[in-house]
């Protein structure tokens, strides 16, 4: 019986590792730490591997694939995004690429709602006041630290939520927002989507949730929304979609939430929009150039921006599911079975 | 025509002040600032007043009421709570007391949900990492900064929310939580409530929301809940209801949210519970002894506690409604009309 070798570049937890360990003909080389391994360790251990289980901070390129050798079958990343993987390099070797979509839908939708509330309610400033020991000196006045209200007050008019990108996470976010009093949902989607199928889905979802869902131009999302959620993929197509021009069209009381990719937002334009009060606030799980976002970054310095360090999928439950899915992907790939969640690599390189 | 005098101790915004200004026979003495006035200013201007519009930081006691004189008819506070008012002093003079309940229901429910998410998702720690410029040095590992998930993952079992106190704000909070996947709601209520009427309401609300609502002992709320919201009144009856014994009964993955009164929680017991990991986290809009909560307070030092400086009702919309209601209460009291929201002072002193 031939044996297989898999390289796992991080401690991905007992549940996921158990899936690989249960395969008697797979030898696992495990970097059993939280910190990523040196590149040299990865390249050395790559030799003879049939599968890799990697994270976003591991570069998957010609160098690594060459180091492994021609027996390599599959690369499985414990992430939804695969910007760290050279798709051309994978495609020309006919390699499979697995990733972990869908399982993080709820965790990301949760953090989106949290950031919308934090941004509108000045929770970043409030939290900082307490951390800095300033609460005792704070003047309590009728409008101290007030922000716009996400939920509707009875009789206080309609609330509209806008989405840039309207996939599973956006829909899960919308579902959570309905009882806050949102009656209308606008979204701008990719031109590549099937518009007729989407229209049917929108009518069905809208009637299920008791609200109106409408696909509109990006400009209309900016103009009409009380909260705008960015939930589109990264990459060139969406680079700096949220620009000075987008931000100038937004309501002065609106908040922007980015839980997708930092590159979707022009950080300097957003910092300016907050400083000059074109919009009310921003809640950001991602920032372009992360993790190199220091104290002097214009958005970190901006009191109306709440920035957290890319924690969108960070729950025990979700990360465990992601790790298990990544483990099943690498095992299936090694055994020549279809991946549970694979990236159609060739589609991207043609 | 006789004229009336009203003293307003803070800038409560144009909408509310407009209500008083519209009354031609009322002279308003206004402390038109955010900072509270010196006591001496209040006492001096009290003389001859028929009504007061005050905030929580203004003490309403014999001294003030004597300074006003026997023509005084009404005290209106722009707050729900009235711990700053000596009810006995009001009762013996047959004075009316107005407050501002209900209008802040949605704003407080919003912040409760926000704090539950922040506490479970380590948002306080994440926010601090970014503020401190530590994001670039952060190690991204599969379980970095992970917390328990508020929402249910498909197939990941049930979620139970617990409330201590189950009035309007708790019910508004529950409504918001349903789409996160909560299937069960437990609450502990005051023994003084009409149990039969509540049982009917619970069945109706539960079937409307598609979940099970059950009144149980305080102990059961502690034991069975994934999130516990404190939404009961302050005062002696609820003093340190959340004690070491309560906290020891909670789940290790549970979070505690206090948006009611700081006195409901024993702060030292909670700090110990967080440090020793009896529970996962806490989201606190209120802390006993506030606003004198400095950097050395055990809960401020505790990374698993998110503390914000009493911002529960802090939205423009809600504070404006509170101010308008307070203005209408003082006007109605002066004119001898029933208050829109009055405290039954005599009930409390008998």
Write up what this structure looks like.
- The structure is a homodimer.
- Chain A is α/β, with parallel strands linked by helices and about 350 residues long.
- Chain A has two domains: about 5-105 and about 315-350, NAD(P)-binding Rossmann-like Domain (Rossmann fold, 3-Layer(aba) Sandwich); about 105-305, Rossmann fold (3-Layer(aba) Sandwich).
- The first copy, chain A, is about 35% helix and about 15% strand.
- The first copy, chain A, has 14 helices and twelve strands.
- The first copy, chain A, has helices at about 15-20, 40-45, 60-70, 85-90, 105-120, 125-130, 170-175, 195-210, 220-225, 245-250, 265-275, 300, 315-335, 345-350; strands at about 5-10, 25-30, 50-55, 75, 95-100, 160-165, 185-190, 210-215, 225-230, 255-260, 280-285, 305.
- In chain A, the strands form two sheets. Chain A has a seven-stranded parallel sheet, with helices on both faces.
- In chain A, helix 1 (about 15-20) runs parallel beside helix 13 (about 315-335), helix 2 (about 40-45) packs parallel to helix 3 (about 60-70) and helix 5 crosses helix 7 (about 170-175).
- The longest helix of chain A is centred in the C-terminal third of the chain and has 19 residues, at about 315-335.
- Chain A is globular.
- Chains A and B meet through helix 5, helix 6 and helix 13 of A and helix 5, helix 6 and helix 13 of B.
- Chains A, B: Belongs to the D-isomer specific 2-hydroxyacid dehydrogenase family.
